[in-house]
Design a protein that fits this description.
By secondary structure, the chain is of the alpha/beta class. It has helices at residues 16-26, 75-88, 110-133, 150-155, 186-194, 208-217, 235-243, 255-272, 316-340, 366-371; strands at residues 5-12, 31-35, 39-45, 58-69, 97-105, 138-140, 163-170, 174-183, 225-228, 247-252, 277-282, 297-303, 341-356, 359-362, 374-376, 397-399, 406-415. The strands form two sheets. Strands 9, 10, 11, 12, 13, 14, 15, 16 and 17 form a nine-stranded mixed beta sheet that branches. It has an eight-stranded mixed beta sheet with strand order 2-3-1-4-8-7-5-6. A hairpin with a 3-residue loop joins strand 2 (31-35) and strand 3 (39-45). Helix 1 (16-26) packs across helix 6, helix 2 (75-88) packs across helix 3 (110-133) and helix 6 crosses helix 7 (235-243). It is elongated, with a radius of gyration of 24 Å. The chain starts with a strand and ends with a strand.
């Protein structure tokens, strides 16, 4: 292994298939070694720590420093490996080193994961004694869980000068030992979501992390022309700006939505001073070809109309009505978007999936997609049964929370 060839583990968000799809879209030249519900393990060149700000579905980035065969595992060997990291970690001699250990499951044996989780306090005590004898003052960050949250890592500054988090990642044959190099900045997400001037709680908004993931799934360079034709209060537009896109359009049929987006984007502009060209205007998505010339848009990224908020499952009659109305609407929408979309451009669109007593029900738009020559893109082709609950019947990605009656189908369509 050459000096610039490294191993990394990405700690995945609540929808691991979306998280993995985003990472492989953004970092296509890295080899996927293995993956689980918690971890994506890759090999490749050095990863810049700032990439964490570009990713919506990654909680932590861990750089692997060593590994141990599962057959040889015991606490003494682990403590030796961890202490090597502590000893070599840059720090001021007089300062405390704030320190934590996390345990992650990368399809490892549950017996090993349980053993490590139960051994954390004992390992802490031994490491504190060894460190004291070497003149190192450790201050431990404890957790009731087997891994530290991003909030805890951020609060205790474990990725900064006097902080260190070591992760033990249990795979099928090895325990990977790594150092957390970057963590998701939850304070920044909170600020740009909760503190913005207008939040449309009645209509609902796309979670900013999901918006960022969907933008990354469009796989465009920063000079690309990109549009959100259902811009609402501007969540996607905001994330496009934060990601550094320079040619952005937002439209919506609602005058209120246009006003809300403009207020929020002007607020953001005052804070980040972006180098951008953004135009927000009122329009029915089904008339965009009257505004844009043919094949002038590189990517469409948006959450469409999901229907009314539901507090219970739909009946068959209700679903059939929704399906009839929305299938017609989205057939017209996709037809219009395909006119303005550049050849090989992408549409990343969130559509509704409805929970019914007969299971999840999808809009009947498959024939329209085929007729328009749009190809359904699967970013992570190697996904197996472990991600089955996140894969739709047409191989798109399902995003949901357990308490929701309307789920999101994330479709990635490429123009042929």
């Amino acid at each position: 292994m050459t000096d610039n060839f490294q191993r990394y583990c990405f700690v995945l968000g609540a929808n691991p298939l979306l998280s993995v799809s985003e990472i492989v879209s953004l970092l296509p030249n890295y080899k996927v070694v293995s993956y689980s519900m918690e971890i994506l393990y890759v090999e490749g060149q050095e990863v810049s720590e700032v990439i964490i700000d570009q990713l919506g579905g990654t909680i932590k980035i861990i750089k692997i420093s060593s590994d141990i065969d599962n057959n040889n595992i015991n606490n003494e060997i682990l403590i030796q490996e961890i202490f090597k990291i502590i000893e070599s970690y840059p720090r001021s001699n007089e300062a405390k080193l704030h320190f934590g250990i996390s345990v992650y499951d990368n399809r490892g044996a549950q017996s090993i994961i349980h053993h490590l989780s139960q051994s954390l306090q004992a390992m802490y005590r031994t490491l504190k004694e060894k460190s004291r004898n070497s003149g190192i003052n450790l201050a431990f960050v404890n957790s009731k869980e087997r891994h530290l949250s991003s909030a805890s890592v951020q609060k205790n500054k474990l990725c900064q000068k006097h902080g260190l988090e070591v992760s033990l990642i249990v795979s099928d044959k090895k325990i990977l030992i790594g150092i957390t190099k970057a963590v998701q900045d939850i304070d920044k997400y909170s600020h740009f979501d909760i503190d913005r001037p207008v939040r449309d709680l009645k209509s609902g908004t796309t979670p900013p992390k999901l918006a960022k993931i969907m933008i990354n799934l469009a796989k465009q360079n920063k000079d690309a022309t990109i549009i959100d034709p259902f811009c609402g209060s501007g969540t996607f537009l905001q994330e496009m700006l934060l990601l550094g896109y320079k040619n952005i359009y937002g439209s919506d049929i609602s005058p209120k939505a246009i006003n809300d987006s403009r207020i929020n984007i002007n607020w953001l502009k005052e804070q980040i001073k972006p180098d951008y060209n953004i135009d927000i205007f009122q329009s029915d998505v089904r008339r965009l070809s009257e505004i844009f010339n043919a094949e002038t848009i590189d990517a469409v990224v948006s959450e469409g109309y999901l229907g009314p908020a539901l507090t219970k499952m739909l009946t068959d009659k209700q679903f059939n009505q929704f399906n009839s109305e929305l299938t017609k609407f989205y057939s017209q929408t996709l037809t219009e978007l395909s006119k303005v979309l550049y050849r090989s451009g992408r549409i990343v669109l969130a559509l509704p999936i409805y929970k019914t007593k007969k299971g999840n029900r999808y809009l009947s738009i498959g024939n329209v997609i085929n007729e328009l020559g749009l190809k359904n893109v699967i970013p992570f082709n190697d996904a197996d049964d472990i991600y089955e609950q996140f894969i739709s019947q047409r191989k798109s990605i399902v995003y949901f929370r357990p308490d929701q009656y309307v789920l999101r189908e994330i479709m990635i369509l490429c123009k042929q």
